Amino acid sequence: MGPRFARRRDRQHPDLSSSFTGADFRRVTVLTLLAIDGVLCAILASFFLPIHIGTIPFPVSALLAGLVNAALVWAALHWTSSPRAAALPLLTWLLTVAVLSLRERPGDDIVFDGPGVMAYAALLLLALGTLPPAAVLWRYVNA
């Protein structure tokens, strides 16, 4: 099949019919480990979010989560050329934060709650945790 539209890539992918090789196995393994790292990053960032310096809340884990997520996406981009596959650590991070934000838990535990500024900690975590890796992906796609 040739190109159907002007200025579009060919829609034929002969590499999809090849057999699964050892390099593919390593790639899938590394991407899976990076996705698991995204889950661990979300759990640690969520649980360390209410850290205080004295009496002032200092959610440094939100900033660190953004930097770690950017590093995970950057590492995933070195193992795959697909931005969708490279976004897997970010997607698992977002899914984990969404699960942790549910209020219906055994024992009625609430992860994202607190007085004053900490009432908006979940929004801060989402903003600071997703903007740096989204910028890495945007830069890769538009490069």
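Second entry:
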Amino acid sequence: MSTATTATPELEPGHIDISQSRRPSMMTLIGVEIRKMTDTRAGLWLLIAIGVITVLINTLFLIFGDRDDLPFLAFLQFSAMPQGILLPVLAVLLVTQEWGQRTGLVTFAQVPHRSKVLGAKLLAAVLFVLAAFAIAVAVAAVLTPIAGADDPWQDVTLPYMARVILALVIGGLWGYAFGVALLNSAFAIVAYFAVPTVVSIVTAIWTSARDALLWFDLSTSSSMLFDPNGVSGKDWAQIGVGALLWIALPMALGWFRVTRMEIK
């Protein structure tokens, strides 16, 4: 008896056989996107800054604040201030680095399914938000017993913790949406900070139309998620409308643009 063998065709010099290669999984792509943030100097230092500033601000409030006013939720809210600023910037860099560093041609040549790459970037941004929140919870859990407040765990509930996570995720998604829509790091970061600032200023000045403008002011409406007393149905509706306007719409336009544009 003889065993049938299949001859492997010889490749010409300079050619690579990719017939046996597999498409990368979503988990692999997410890992690649996370690693990209640590491979660049700006991304690495931004990650370090998020962790260091979170610890530093809480430590300063512990040292100089009134210890009776430092329960667990206070430390958590202190962490949300710098994270609410830096996490959207991180999301912008995550999605714009292909164009800022001109690596888009390599990325999309290796993974032609552009929507899959964009989805991996989106999930990576959410994972960074969750990691930052975990750091904030850990810092608050360590410093709360040291502060010695009378009732340090007051109003600490799962619904409230979920709302804080949602508020941080909204910020991250907002930065991602502007990044994928504009595909320019500097322009997207400026737009992210300028647009809500202008809308909030108009809302504050135009008092007669404040109630109507709150439906377009996602920055103000999403801040209600930090209220321990809860969020009303109207507040949820305003958050939803603002998210559709400032997150869903630019994200959809950005995805359409990236999946249709010529990568150079």
